[in-house]
Fold each of these.
Amino acid sequence: MGTEKFKTVVPLLRCPVCGGTMEEKEHASLVCALGHCFDLAKKGYVNFAPQKRHGPYGAALFESRQRAFRAGFYDMPLTALCEAAARHIKNTQPALLDAGCGEGFYALGLKRYFGASSRVIGFDLEKEAVRIAARGNNDVAWLVADMTRLPLQDACFDAVFNVFSPAAYAEFKRVLKPGGVIVKAVPGERYLIEIRQAAQEKLKSGAYSPARVSEHFKAHWSVLEQFRITETLPVAPEQLKDFLALTPMLFNVDTEKLSTEHIKEITIDVEIMVGASA
Ligand SMILES: [Zn+2]
């Protein structure tokens, strides 16, 4: 098991080395006409970037993130992303791509929302994250892959999701069908404001502003929708530890020394943009 779900997505894949189409071989690997071969890991993902060295983030970071996701802190943005996409996707059996899927919370949510007839691929260059995403034998096809050189065919996705992740817009445009949409989410101005205020004096950069990301998006896509969702939720001390661990902007700060005892709530603030090829 674990390989079955790749059957339906094999036509969407292409060889990351030569760009050729891929075929499944003996339920154990994917191979192109030139013989470039990638194992279908029993764990439920394919590594299309085996040469990649480990990134700066260890498994512990992704475990923290998964706990924060499972505790419900990101349910509202997930629902908003699904509903925003559904307003623009015409196909009842959509092919969806989560570009920079991390430990898979959004890709799994998309699969639940769009149902069994949808095909969902999630990829990330961080193998540790993808390994966590693939746990539990779920129905998303997971890839370890390089965003700037996607092992995916041209014009085959109804939507590309890009949530709290860097982007590669030229590649996203290449893999989108005509009429396909990009759904991008970035942290809003008040995202985790409680933690950032606690760290204020120790932060190198000034106030975070999503405006630059938004301008870059508008330069590449014609915007169909743009909106912001904000929610402040109570946070338990144990949960706060997970947020401290996953806040990239705190990586240069010694979080042990932050005074966070007074933090009793966490603000989730997300800007969502939906765009089409301009
Ligand atoms: Zn090849």
Note: The CA atoms of residues 106 and 263 lie 27 Å apart.
Amino acid sequence: MNRNNLISLSKSIGNNLDLTQGAGGNTSVKDGKVMWVKASGYCLQDAGVKNIFVPVNYPGILRRLEKGQDNPVEPEIIKENHGETLRPSIETTLHALMPHRYVIHVHSVNVLAKAVVRKGEEVFHKLLNGIKWSWIPYARPGVPLTKEVQRATQLDPDVLVLANHGLVLGGDTAEEAENLLNDIERRLNCFRRETPAISMQEINSLTEGTEYKPSKYDLVHSLAFDQVALEIVGKGSLYPDHVVFLGPGPMPTMKTYEAQDYLSLSFGNTSQYHQAIIVVGYGVIIHKSLSEGAEVMLHCLINTLLRIQSHDDLRYLTKEEEAELMGWDAEKYRKKIQQ
Ligand SMILES: [Zn+2]
């Protein structure tokens, strides 16, 4: 029963691009000592269609966290009888630390648009009045974020706002958790700027016969028309999934003639091409090898940026933070960025 509730909850969240994008976001339910948590790399929208949940012994995870172990999840995976075992999400520890039966973690664009602001904590303080919540300063997903959350959950919050990342919340029933999520979304819902429709004919003629194609999402093309968004992507990245899927640093932005020149180049077997290019006033083109998971991150990016105002003081991820997300040391980062 609990797992059926988890499946329907996961599907409804997973089908909403304002809440989760691709394999981002995760859910869990605790049943006795077992916690079922979404597997790494799987999409919430596939709940019920595929097996996307992994059972773990969560009191065991909590004991290992108390002892300060760096790998508290892997030894606590409960092996199932039939064949391969999925790998639990890197965010499993957040689910274990929340005491609620149902826990939801989403990269909501309404949350992101405010959680990337320097004074985000003050903004949420006003908007989440009456809810038991905690602000979690930015930390890399994995051990550093777990440590921050471990500190915060001692105050027993129902909601965690992860700076430059997203939202975690819990409820004792699936309905309670979903109602809380809907309530927060209503409180945070912000206006999304509109941009002019693009000319598909023009953008198609630009990429015809090249290794690039226009993004399939209409919204993604808004990146090429919105001044605030263009300025932000020219400066850097704001949250982990952007860096992991689309790479660190500013996104390449070109004028039409620059894009024409660039597209006429042959890259042979090298992997040193741009994954996505913003052609100002035209649209967004992506390399044909770009994964579905990365393209949906472009959707998340513009869906967030169109909700940010020009006067918002944003906290970008630092070069060091980007490097640690890529698993790079500082030197490798410097070289990559210069390519
Ligand atoms: Zn996350």
Note: The first helix runs from residue 2 to 14.
